[in-house]
Amino acid sequence: MRNSKYLAGLALLAVGGLALSGCSGGSGGDSGEGSVTLTFWHNSTTGAGKAYWEDTAAAFAEENPGVTVEIQSVPNEEMDGKLQTALNAGDAPDVFMARGGGKLADIVKAGQVMDLTDGISDGAKSALELSLPAFEVDGKNYGMPVAVLPSGIFYSSDLFAEAGVAATPATIDELVAADTQLRTAGIDPIAVGAKDAWPAAHWYYNFALRACSQEVLDDAAETRSFDDPCWLDAGENLQAFVDTDPFNKGFLTTVAQQGAGSSAGLLANHKAAMELMGAWNPGVIADLTPDKKPLADLQWFPFPAVPGGAGTPDAMMGGIDGYSCWVNAPEECVDFLNFMVEKGNQEAYAEAYQTIPASSEAQGAVTNPALLDILEAYNAAPYVSVWLDTLYGQNIGNALNVAVVDMFAGKGDAQGIVDAVNAAASRS
Questions:
Q1: Contact, 289 vs 270, CB < 8 A?
Q2: What's the start-to-end Cα distance of the chain, in Å?
Q3: Worst-scoring range by mean pLDDT, 5-9, 261-265, 322-326?
Q4: pLDDT tens, 50-64?
Q5: Using CB atoms within 10 A of its CB, is residue 364 exposed (0-12), middle (13-18) or buried (19+)?
């Protein structure tokens, strides 16, 4: 699939009125005469998200006598590696997370994922018309989307007010100025879970989104060449930003989403003012506040403009979360995917995760102020790029993420990021 098709779909989704981890993987076969067991991996280990999947699996089993869904909650940071190991071993879960892009294309090429094209219900096709293309490879569908996940900077309006930050930053220079005000007020400006690599890498992704044109981003997915000068520019711009000391104390050992000391937890408990993250963040933060409720002062603004780049200023970085079926899964796996995206289940998903459902029919469930701000920005976005580690596949993505963390740690530079990615691409 050309990613540009997916990006256009996301932009149209916004304009069209869109009002985010037991048993071992494997077998999914019969558990007895006339019965079927589906093994299912997701990445919600606590809270409302975990409860949502337990309830949804139970409801599906009730509607489908003889079908049992065995759930394993896998921490998000472990999901990609654990899943790839299971796929390579031929013992994968029947139902597993998928994010499209090069990661999905790789497992399609390896023959590890089921072709869903003829099994998707008419209702699902209608409700997901603009998000289904995210899971197409060579004109066939290999996944069912459940959430659209644009990113940006989530922030505490109370901490902004305490530090005297009167307006949300529209440019990188304004973000640096806000960081200075927050630091002067004794507040860590930006939380980042660099220990998990990908949250730090998201900063490079967004600087690349501003430095590189849409055509360069898309073409690199096919050519696997990262020699355009914009990739180096992105790294140099990021290095200049890192040099302003914008992040929380101990960011190199901070995790992203587990516990009060994570980057999300720091924002949830007013220990830091901002975090760059995707649209699943309100739900994660809600689970980490002292009262386990949504953070009352949580707001959002888009990644700031960076002067001199070829990227369109209002372009956004994001993704779509969904689920796929292992190639050897029973046919009931497809029924379960169709069940996931029924209107009521998508509304419940949006409420449980505090995020944006993929189904256009469930858009009314989006009420969180920060998410509504994201949707407003979507309406103006000319295109949305998928996460670069997803777009370019796991091998290139891992090399990119590690190289960015090396820069954050003072062990690498902008050229090192480009060299690492090109070296990984040459081996892909």
A1: no
A2: 18
A3: 5-9
A4: 999 999 999 999 999
A5: exposed
Rounded to 5 degrees, φ, ψ at 39 are -90, 140
**Across the strands, what pairs with 36?**
67
CB 322 within 8 A of CB 135: yes
Q: Cα–Cα distance between 284 and 70 in angstroms, integer?
A: 24
Report the phi/psi class of residue 15: left, alpha or beta, with left for phi > 0 and alpha for psi in -120 to 50. Answer: alpha
In whole angstroms, give the CA distance from residue 2 to residue 332: 30
326 and 400 part of one domain: no
- Are 49 and 81 in contact by the 8 Å Cβ rule? The answer is no
Report helix, strand or coil for 138: coil
Question: 3-class DSSP state for residue 293?
Answer: coil
Q: The domain containing residue 338 runs over which residues?
A: 20-149+319-365
Cα–Cα distance list, 427 to 277, 394, 422 (Å): 30, 12, 9
Backbone angles phi and psi of 192, in degrees to 5: -145, 130
User: Model pTM?
Assistant: 0.82
Question: 27 with 140, same domain?
Answer: yes
pLDDT single digits (tens) 360-374 = 899 889 999 999 999
HSE-CB for 374 with a 13 A CA cutoff: 35
CATH no. for residue 133?
3.40.190.10
Q: What are phi and psi of 169, to 5 degrees?
A: -65, 130
Q: Kindly tell me the burial class for residue 152, based on how many C-beta atoms sit within 10 Å of its own C-beta (0-12, 13-18, 19 or more).
A: buried
